[in-house]
Specification:
Elements lengths: L6 E3 H9 L5 E12 L5 E8 L5 H10 L3 E3 L7 E7 L3 E8 L2 E8 L9
Antiparallel strand pairs: 1-4, 2-3, 2-5, 5-6, 6-7
Length: about 110
């Protein structure tokens, strides 16, 4: 029997998602990798607060520098990234396969103003 793992790195995925988008304002990421070998929950939440410093940002990146299974099965990475200019990214998921989905508020058409 063969198992195909689709391991991703949360930090690398975060940085790739942020490329070409407005400045990150804040972020909230939870990595849920189930239970470790001792039966302890391996859930961790990482927060980058609004008004962060460069040191805060680097500490946040270091804290999310973790591998997780992004393949089919259970979702392991949850969260939201808030950017400037009414843009945000949230986790998309289908049958355990997951990704960052970037969204932006639409402009209000002049006929509704």
């Amino acid at each position: 029997m063969y198992y195909l793992w689709c391991m991703e790195n949360a930090k690398e995925e975060f940085l790739t998602t942020c490329e070409g988008l407005p400045k990150v304002i804040a972020a909230h990421i939870q990595i849920n990798r189930g239970y470790d070998k001792f039966g302890e929950s391996d859930d961790n939440t990482y927060i980058l607060k609004k008004g962060y410093t460069e040191e805060d940002f680097q500490n946040f990146l270091t804290s999310i520098d973790k591998e997780y299974d992004a393949g089919y099965g259970g979702q392991e990475l949850y969260g939201t990234i808030w950017f400037a200019k009414n843009v945000w990214a949230e986790r998309g998921e289908y049958d355990g396969s997951e990704w960052w989905e970037v969204r932006q508020y639409p402009k209000i058409p002049k006929e509704v103003k």
